[in-house]
Amino acid sequence: MKKIVLFFVLLTCITQVQAQEEFVSPQAKLITKIPFIQLTGGIIIVRACIDTLKKDSLNFVLDTGSGGISLDSTTVEDCGFKTALTDKTIRGIAGMKKVGFTYGHYLNFPGLTTDTFSFHINDYDLLTSVYGIKIDGIIGFSFLRRYILKIDYDKQIIDILSPGTFKYPRGGYLMKPSFSTLPLPVFEIEDASSFVNRFIFDTGAGLCFLLSKDFVEDSLLLKRKKKVYTTQAEGLGGKKTMEITVVKSASVGPFKFRKVPVYIFQDDYNVTAYPQMVGIIGNDILRRFNVILNYPDQTIFLRPNGKFADPFDYSYTGLGIYLVGDEVAIIDIVKGSPGDVAGFKTGDIIKAIDNNFTKNIQLFKAAMQIAGAKLKVLIFRDGTPQILTLDVKNILH
After folding, report:
1. In angstroms, how far is the first alpha carbon of the chain from the final one?
2. Partners of residue 84 on adjacent β-strands
3. pTM for the structure as a whole
4. Residue 284 belongs to what H/E stretch?
5. Fewer Cβ close by (within 10 Å): the C or N end of the chain?
6. pLDDT tens by residue, 339-388
7. Whole-angstrom distance, CA of residue 366 vs CA of residue 284
8. CA-CA distance, 138 to 62, in Å (whole number)?
């Protein structure tokens, strides 16, 4: 009897040991580190070469809101790449369009040469004009699904690792979002009421949140008589009229932000597929974390960084400024906005803001994002200089 009992004790111990055995993927390994710069709203720009071309590196937006990988049409032409017409359609907040492709090209980063991609071709002249630097393409899902990316916004460095077993650091929050070609994590947003729903995780959006107007109206999210302002944003397909306001709070896991600016748009092209999703979370929130994108494991890790407590952009001018040639021009003006009241006209050329004569559109935009500021703006209108005073509205008040 003792022998039988002993046998079952040993069998139990062996079973417990065996239960601790499992097959694991190889350890993820660092492939390379690449620097990046940030533009308005935290947009990430990385530089890479295409194939073996020895021309200067190209500028790519790192965009988790893109389901593929793409090149600008003029860049394709300059490189002499062959193109193919297709029936495939891409969709964005401002439109839908059929796109061609150029096949069999690869990216070269310092320390990394990728396998080949099928790049779809789009016209990024508007983005180039908005940001003031040539946008040659967008890096999205087709690239991201092949690697683990550690984005350090403090140091402006991206570590690219091979897929595999990966140990996350302490002090953060691990998300397991739904995945199609886009990650769809859950966030909570609160104003008159609190709602938990899925958002598109979009590092290519230079804002905090973009909400479907259908969701806002169906949910009665906003407090009664909430002040909203008419504005404009740019996206795939062109420009889009929107509204901007502030909600009480937004949260993900243990992290909470208060008084968060949100854009509200009429989702004519069903980008959010409401009610399955209710909007987009953009890089003006995401840049406040150091982020690990682990598409192979379908996980995303957020850890607060040195920008976590940065103030939000509560400014409102109603002006759409763009780089046209080598001049910064006023192209769009919202009627009744601070820019309209200040006397700006379409076609005005901005030569300086508060003695800043750089003609750097990023610096001019940064000046206009100081909520409550009173700016002296030197413009040329029909070749004649004028100084206008712009009172930048604070949408908190």
Report:
1. 83
2. 101
3. 0.91
4. helix 283-286
5. N
6. 999 999 999 999 999 989 999 999 999 999 999 999 999 999 999 999 99
7. 14
8. 6
